[in-house]
Design brief:
CATH architecture: 3-Layer(aba) Sandwich
Number of strands: 8
CATH superfamily: NAD(P)-binding Rossmann-like Domain
Mean pLDDT: 93
Largest sheet: 8 strands, mixed
Family: Belongs to the short-chain dehydrogenases/reductases (SDR) family.
Number of domains: 1
CATH topology: Rossmann fold
Order of helices and strands: EHEHEHEHEHHEHHEEHH
InterPro entries: KR_dom, NAD(P)-bd_dom_sf, Peroxisomal_Beta-Oxidation, Sc_DH/Rdtase_CS, SDR_fam
Shape: globular
Strand order of the largest sheet: 3-2-1-4-5-6-7-8
Protein name: SDR family oxidoreductase
Helix content: 40-55%
Pfam families: adh_short
Length: about 300
């Protein structure tokens, strides 16, 4: 489905990114395997992971080039895109998968922990997408696939930085879809459920949390790749601005914020009438303080 296309997959030295890079190559794409080779918290660097995945693709008869530039820096992100164009002649798809974690309860979160996560997830997706957008506009085609998370779409404990970045990423994707649809450029999101290095950092403090971790372990990263490869292909030409979730063998189309219920008062509102009339009328439709695990309670199938 991707014969002749060139794809960048950020953070593809392992886990979900690696499986997406391999799937893209199996479908005929030339792949720029981007990974700085850092730790889960974004510290340190190594050329090893990107090189290993690129070598794996080549050994299977595919085309690939490793890249170790950081998505968090705009100039570095431009180099990722330029490498794709210079090595393979064009760029057709970017998968924004690179990520780090710096989990902490909100009242204990430092400014550095906030900045580091937003720089990689939100700024990183913007930086690489913006660099690719120049080429997409010129060639009148392109696809962006962003890895969001139910931590942002629904909520999670101890991840204010990660959740804010991931929900911001869905808004970024929608804005790109609106702004660039006239150039035949598409932008979609996937919220993946899969056991990976990032998920392995989930704290396990009781039997409930242990059960959740064991459930996630059943969901392997390769389950995410088929949807990502499809979204990069011409077969997805009419799929734009959507948010999907993949959970083992299940694919979900996620809702996006829309009005649920309204209340009108012809003479306008005062704080008192809001308390006495508006909120009691609307309260039945309030969204509960769910976490991702509260919404996705059933066993993966």
């Amino acid at each position: 489905m991707l014969e002749g296309k060139v794809v960048i997959v950020t953070g593809s030295g392992g886990g979900i990114g690696r499986e997406i890079a391999l799937a893209m190559a199996r479908q005929g794409a030339a792949v720029v395997v981007n990974d700085i080779g850092a730790s889960l918290t974004g510290e340190g660097a190594s050329t090893g992971p990107a090189q290993q995945v690129a070598d794996e693709i080549k050994a299977a008869g595919g085309r690939a080039a490793p890249n170790t530039d950081s998505v968090a820096d705009a100039a570095s992100a431009e180099r990722i895109v330029e490498q794709a164009v210079q090595t393979f002649g064009r760029i057709d798809c970017v998968v924004n998968n690179a990520g780090i974690l710096r989990d902490a309860l909100f009242h204990k979160m430092s400014g550095d922990e906030w900045d580091a996560v937003l720089k990689v997830h939100l700024y990183g997706a913007y930086n690489v997408s913006r660099a690719a957008a120049v080429h997409f506009r010129e060639q009148q085609s392109g696809s962006l696939v962003h890895m969001t998370s139910t931590s942002g779409l629904i909520g999670n404990l101890g991840q204010a930085n990660y959740s804010a970045a991931k929900l911001g990423l869905t808004a970024l994707s929608k804005s790109i879809a609106l702004d660039m649809q006239k150039f035949n450029v598409r932008s979609n999101c996937i919220a993946p459920f899969a056991w990976s290095r990032m998920i392995s950092s989930i704290p396990v403090k009781n039997e409930e949390q242990q059960a959740r971790v064991e459930k996630i372990k059943q969901m392997t990263p390769d389950k995410i790749a088929p949807l990502a490869a499809y979204l990069a292909s011409d077969a997805a030409a009419d799929v734009n601005g959507q948010v999907f979730t993949v959970r083992n063998n299940e694919i979900f189309l996620m809702s996006q914020p829309r009005p649920l219920r309204s209340i009108h008062r012809a003479e306008g509102w005062t704080p008192q009438t809001v308390a006495e009339h508006a909120i009691p009328a609307l309260k039945a439709s309030f969204i509960p303080l769910d976490r991702s695990a509260d919404v996705f309670q059933w066993d993966p199938v």
